[in-house]
Design goal:
The chain is 41% helix and 16% strand. By secondary structure, the protein is an alpha/beta fold. The protein has three domains: 3-82, no CATH class; 89-189, Orthogonal Bundle (Arc Repressor Mutant, subunit A); 197-323, Rossmann fold (3-Layer(aba) Sandwich). A five-stranded parallel beta sheet has the order 9-8-10-11-12. A four-stranded mixed beta sheet has the order 1-2-3-4. The protein has a three-stranded antiparallel beta sheet with strand order 5-7-6. A hairpin with a 5-residue loop joins strand 1 and strand 2 (23-28). The longest helix is centred in the first third of the chain and has 16 residues, at 50-65. The protein is globular, with a radius of gyration of 21 Å.
Length: 334
């Protein structure tokens, strides 16, 4: 295998793409698709362990799910994922179901995959066969290091009747979602609110007016939702009843963690925590000069990092459409 046709993270087959930047751009099924990694980050990658590589892979998968076609890895990204908690085995199994569903072209589609990469067989060469690519993508979407973990998760899904498997314990296998598997995916989506509102949690300081009025609010409207802003409500230690009611009525929360010299805004953290407790998705943002000061509790989550209201508007609108889906309100064409 040519040296420049390997994934910088996993040393698995990848397609290197041209770039004039200091780093590497490649398409790697082992991490679920395309990414750019800076030269300094690539040097750090060589010394990290497999579990940290898994977290970095998960970060890439999440970034693409949030609308980033080619996420960029820096040394700061590596530091960020070091603080992530390990996902539960149930979340990892659900990741497989979501992957199969997203790839299926019809109900009951079968997906062949080959595990010979770790079985001492012939090493894969680029371009990969479909079964080889699917194997690497299954690893990426299930937070797995190696085939034994993937086999365990597929075994659980099969025992629960959520997937059908063929060729267990062989190098060439296939799997498919069952009716119960689709039902499980429906259950995961049942808590989605039909609301057309997007609640805004942020620091209500005059210096943030442009970010609110030219960034966050128009981004929410562009995505087909109505922004809910309660900027006269300051609270310490508990959430005001009106804020609680508005969060309950919202489809999602946009939370910006930018703050002033007096430190983090406790109210924003409370509001995001409350939304999480209700199963309401929260999209997190932060101005670039304050990212290093994010509290540990939210640092593990993906934030939209912005420098200008215009950048915030573009990135946030794209993220809302990718994660939440376009809303029911008529919005102008982007």
């Amino acid at each position: 295998m040519a040296e420049n046709n390997i994934c910088a993270i996993w040393a698995t087959p990848a397609t290197t793409l041209p770039t004039d930047r200091d780093g590497l751009t490649c398409d790697s099924p082992r991490v679920g698709g395309r990414y750019f990694i800076s030269g300094s980050a690539a040097a750090v990658i060589r010394a990290i362990d497999d579990r940290l590589k898994v977290r970095l892979t998960t970060w890439l998968v999440q970034q693409r799910a949030h609308g980033e076609d080619c996420p960029e890895i820096t040394t700061g990204t590596i530091d960020e994922v070091k603080g992530w908690r390990e996902p539960s085995v149930f979340d990892r199994a659900d990741g497989i179901l979501k992957y199969l569903s997203n790839r299926a072209i019809s109900i009951g589609s079968r997906f062949q995959f080959s595990i010979e990469w770790e079985a001492g067989g012939e090493r894969f060469e680029t371009p990969l066969k479909d079964a080889q690519r699917t194997y690497f993508e299954l690893l990426a979407h299930s937070d797995s290091c190696r085939s034994e973990e993937l086999e365990f998760l597929l075994g659980y899904l099969s025992d629960q009747g959520l997937v059908e498997r063929h060729g267990v314990n062989t190098l060439e296998q296939w799997c498919a979602l069952t009716f119960s598997g689709y039902a499980r995916l429906e259950t995961l989506e049942q808590n989605v609110s039909p609301s057309s509102k997007g609640f805004v949690a942020m620091w209500f300081d005059p210096s943030m007016k442009a970010a609110r009025d030219e960034g966050i609010k128009p981004a929410i409207r562009l995505s087909g939702y109505e922004p809910v802003v309660i900027d006269e409500k300051e609270h310490a230690g508990r959430i005001d009843d009106e804020i609680v009611s508005e969060i309950r009525r919202s489809r999602f929360v946009v939370a910006d963690f930018t703050h002033g010299e007096d430190g983090a805004r406790g109210g924003v953290y409370y509001e995001v925590g409350f939304a999480h407790g209700l199963g309401i998705p929260a999209i997190l943002t932060c101005r670039s000069d304050k990212v290093a000061e994010l509290h540990f509790d939210t640092r593990q989550y993906n934030h939209i990092v912005w420098k200008s209201p215009e950048e915030l508007r573009t990135k946030l609108a794209k993220r809302i459409s990718a994660v939440i889906g376009d809303g029911p309100l008529v919005a102008p064409t982007r």
